[in-house]
Amino acid sequence: MTDTYGSPLFAALREARAAEWEAYVAHDFVTRLGDGTLPREAFLTYLRQDYLFLVHFARAWALAAAKTDRIEEMRACAGTLHALIGEEMKLHIAICAREGIDEAALAAEPEAPETLAYTRYVIDAGLSGDLLDLLVALIPCVMGYGEIGRRLEGAAPGGLYAEWIGTYADPGYQQVCREVGALLEGVAARRLGPDPAASPRWPELAAGFGTACRLEADFWGMGLAAG
């Protein structure tokens, strides 16, 4: 099940980098998460690293807010930041706590090479580029998890990973995706014009989107290798 989340630009980027996108959202880690066959240690390794990832992802959204002078865009970035810190990270903390891993231990976890590569790529996109460059690096995570949640919803009701799946299938998270889609459209309209694919910036943006998708797939692979 796919959704453009109200963003034709996201849909165009996803189509332009379809192979990278599908390798990410249909990764074996995701498939096994859905059918409940993913080893628990693989899931916990992923969760510990994803907690660290989300810390840097929150920094990236704060950077996005700093890169605009439009209050409505600041509000959108702040809303996404709040959802990350106030909701999404709670999932990681709660599941890990049940496994005897407290938040202090999560924060002290060494970053895996895949975590370093992905988070620093996103931060660098924001530091070296403009707001659009940063958003294009951010949206594979936001929209991809939304699509994965919807794909897996109902796949294994009451299964081992139903709580994780439910978080991203939840209407609240799906609304975050739509809000990010609206933000992306507004930012892109002022920089790319009515035909984004005709913009001189298009090849670089599509390449950046594809890179973020590959780094997402590598992140799944890191978790799977631990199981």
From TrEMBL:
Protein source organism: Albimonas donghaensis
One of the record's GO cellular component terms: cytosol
Alphabetized Gene3D superfamilies for the sequence: Heme oxygenase-like (1.20.910.10)
InterPro entries assigned: Haem_Oase-like_multi-hlx, Thiaminase-2/PQQC, Thiamine_Salvage_TenA
Coiled-coil boundaries: none
Pfam family, one: TENA_THI-4
Domain Thiaminase-2/PQQC: 21-224
Protein name as annotated: Thiaminase (Transcriptional activator TenA)
Highest taxon listed in the record's lineage: Bacteria
Lineage, broadest ranks: Bacteria, Pseudomonadati, Pseudomonadota, Alphaproteobacteria, Rhodobacterales
